[in-house]
Structures are given as C-alpha cells and as structure tokens.
Amino acid sequence: MGAFVISRRFNDEYKFVFTSRKGKVIFTSSSYELKFECEEDIEKFKLNVEHAKFLKFKGSGGKYFFKLMLGEVQFAMSRKYTTELLLQKGIKEIVLYASKAEILDFSSNDLIFDNEMVAEGEVL
Fold first, then answer.
1. Is the pTM here over 0.70, yes or no?
2. What InterPro entries does UniProt report for this protein, alphabetically (predicted)?
3. CA nearest to 26, candidates 77, 71, 97
C-alpha cells in the first residue's frame, strides 16, 4: 500500500519519504526543523493528494524526475527514474495509495538491538 517514513537527516532536521508497496522510495520531502511539522504536512498531503501537481523533468543525464507541488509550494522531489514509464508508475502509486498510507516514524535515535547482543555477534 505504501508508507510515509519519517527519519532524521545528518543535520538533525526531519524529513519523510513516501515508499511504494515494494519498499522503493518514490519521493523525499523537504527538511523540517520540528517533527510535528513533518507529521502535519504528511496529514495535509494525505487529505489533499487529489490537488497535487506533478511537474515532470528530464535531467541532463537523461533520467526523469518530478517535483511534487501542493498549491504553489514544492512539497517534495522524486527519485530519479530511467524511463518516463517508470516515472508515470511512481506518480500513479502516489495517486492511488498516498491517502491510505500509514506513517512510520524512524526518527528516534534509540537502538533497536541491545548493545551486548551486537558486541557478542549474536544473530537474531
């Protein structure tokens, strides 16, 4: 179904990506200073996805990408696609699934595995 995944950039600002049903990143948001701003924009986008505009471009290297506009503001930038057909598939995935997508928050710095288990080389 796709998901919005919140994470942190190296400068400690927040961002989110929208991933396809197969887990591939379709677009990446701008940076946010506060996590709640990121969450609010995701919710706003989910409610207004039918009003989104996709400005399509072909880069100098021959790859395709789009800028996702919400109103007159750039909301996000897509990944690079090798063909125009793949770009269209990415846009279709957004239109079909973004309004129903779940939000996953991976912005915490908490470790998933216990340090002792990692140090001992245990495999889960």
1. yes
2. YegP-like_sf
3. 77
